[in-house]
Amino acid sequence: MQSLRVLVVEDEQPLLQELSELPWESFGASLCGTASNGLDAWCHFDAPQIPDVVLTDITMPIMDGIELMHKIKQKYPHVQVVLLTCHLDFHYAQEAIQAGALDYLIKISLCDKEIEQVLDKARKTLLRERAHTRLLWEKELHQLQSARLSGALQEMQLETKGKIEAHLPAMPCYIMLHLPHASMQMAEPFVSDFFFEEIQRTDLSIDVFLMRKNEYLLLTRDKEINIHATEHPIFHLLQRLQAAITVEIPHICSFSVLGSRLETAFDLVQFMQCIPELQRALFYTDEWQHTVQHQAILSGMPQAAHPIEQQDLLHIETKKQKNCTHVGGIKHFLQHEFTEWARSDEFDVSQVKQMLVTWVTEWQRDFHLFAHLEAIIEDILASIKLMDAVRMINDNISMDDLQSIGGHIEVRHAQRIILENLASNLTLEFVAAKVSLSPTYLSRIFRQETGETFNGYMTRCRIESAMKLLRTTNLMVYEVAVAVGIPNYRYFSRVFRQWTGSTPKEYKRGLAKQCAYNG
């Protein structure tokens, strides 16, 4: 495929300038134009050669990125639209993904590698769409078969039973994809296309059915199939699927369940009814899985789950109270006593997750262990393996018990140097030389006395100074960035967002709205 033609649409001039100066040729692309709003961008579609890819901000004057995308998709559905957004625009980005946008990128963390990756994704999507136009009839027929089986599992009437049994006898494989909500819209068409193309080019006799969003059923009708995962013919297909997913859709994992041979439609229904139990088995055990990066493949049927009874709860609470009196005890308890207790009877997964949520909330209240409690709770509830949840909690516990051990005049001198030279390119080595200490020793006593690292203190001072300049001056955002010693616009925006919860532009808009309201 020839070089991609890229149109960049952004109303923040410093960011637009940075994007314009990217090495587009090294990405296999060329910049065919820029615009500061959607209306100006739309004019580029009157040219003889329209863009292949539009990289656009969401919130812009005159015509925003969402309206621009709708106009593009209505008239030029093959053009790939990639959104530039900040965290506060996530709901707009998700709406746009549903309406046909290819992807979205976070402005404050944007880097050349992400742009290169999204352009590669656009190139593959364009090629795939062009190739698939030759296969529309076959795909429609395949989807019709999927719909018939999906409805049959719910009704099981006589006619439906016959339709299912047309695919039997067969070996079943159930696949569930587990991924962030924002990626779900991308996953379904990608995985469906993958299966369709793989089946077309292989000798395997497999029917693929989309059961629910991101849940698939594969029926293998080949004879003499071994139940063991590593010898199952679908195993290699799933390996290729995971490899493709890892490249196209980051942060995704999947698990697959290989069942026993099905002879009747009722066998298939019974297999599907056991899926929740298999999900629970995956949560607890490592014994049945063959891991391919983030993929687990299970075979066999588990025992039934046990609800947590009062005596079970009393037993583990007693162990918790005995062990969890300090940070080290909490880590050891989660990794050993708690994990062994939960696995012993494979308790109900939702009850175990809720127990962990309750405990981390208590430990935050008593010990202040976690910097981002809400995110940790979300990760616990979303975890598909017990050890993943335990490891995530332990990894987020702070072991920093250092206390202030007295004052050093050199630390106060270093703080003054930082405050008086924020606009300079300060380093630990430079400041240490100024106060006549080694960098290692200054770093250690600085953290002991202030509770912050040298770089953390310097960054906080720069952000606080930036906030003051945004409140009290009319300087542009990029001018403020230079004034506080972080001249890179994108990096400054990202750091400002990490410390304040908003980008500099959002912060300044909020101040303006507050002034208008008070006025």
Automatic annotation (TrEMBL):
Pfam families given in the database record: HTH_18 (PF12833), Response_reg (PF00072)
Sequence positions bearing 4-aspartylphosphate: 57
Top-level taxon of origin: Bacteria
Residue ranges constituting the HTH araC/xylS-type domain according to the UniProt record: 412-510
PROSITE patterns noted in UniProt: HTH_ARAC_FAMILY_1, HTH_ARAC_FAMILY_2, RESPONSE_REGULATORY
Domain Response regulatory: 5-122
Keywords linked to the UniProt accession: DNA-binding, Phosphoprotein, Transcription, Transcription regulation
Name recorded for this polypeptide: Helix-turn-helix domain-containing protein
Taxonomic source organism: Alicyclobacillus fodiniaquatilis
Lineage: Bacteria, Bacillati, Bacillota, Bacilli, Bacillales
